[in-house]
């Protein structure tokens, strides 16, 4: 501590859990500023990935499916993930194979821009599938 005072610098504990604790003589204000600068720089390089959701029913018409596929293509081109959900009501739960066909047809319609991240899985009354943008 005396050494740090004579150099008019700070004594900073680098690794407090080590035996003996590791300390360093440095200008703490300058060190803190450089760490904040590095953190800001790393945040700039990160890309936020949003998840967009598209809902439909198992007995959706072809044209409606095409419109939803077109919207999903826009989301995928923007770099977002797409969660495609088919909702089953009442007796439709007995025909989950129809929902799976709809989801796979949807994936085929958007295959120019996407690849399947998670294949269709049933969760309660919904069947979900995740699409990720192609690189």
TrEMBL record:
Residues 49-134 form the Translation initiation factor 3 C-terminal domain. Residues 1-41 form the Translation initiation factor 3 N-terminal domain. GO terms for molecular function: translation initiation factor activity. The keyword Protein biosynthesis applies. Keywords: Initiation factor, Protein biosynthesis. Belongs to the IF-3 family. This is Translation initiation factor IF-3. Coiled coil: none annotated. It comes from Sedimentibacter acidaminivorans. It comes from the Bacteria. InterPro entries: T_IF-3_C_sf, T_IF-3_N_sf, Translation_initiation_fac_3, Translation_initiation_fac_3_C, Translation_initiation_fac_3_N. Pfam families: IF3_C, IF3_N. The keyword Protein biosynthesis applies.
């Amino acid at each position: 501590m005396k050494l740090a005072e004579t150099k008019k610098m700070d004594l900073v504990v680098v690794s407090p859990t080590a035996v003996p604790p590791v300390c360093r003589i440095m200008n703490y204000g300058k060190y803190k500023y450089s760490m904040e600068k590095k953190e800001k720089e790393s945040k700039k390089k990160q890309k936020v990935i949003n998840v967009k959701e598209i809902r439909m029913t198992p007995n959706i018409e072809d044209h409606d499916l095409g419109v939803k596929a077109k919207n999903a293509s826009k989301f995928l081109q923007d770099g977002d993930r797409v969660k495609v959900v088919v909702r089953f009501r009442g007796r439709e739960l007995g025909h989950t194979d129809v929902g799976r066909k709809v989801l796979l047809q949807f994936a085929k319609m958007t295959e120019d821009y996407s690849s399947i991240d998670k294949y269709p899985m049933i969760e309660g009354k919904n069947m979900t599938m995740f699409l990720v943008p192609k690189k």
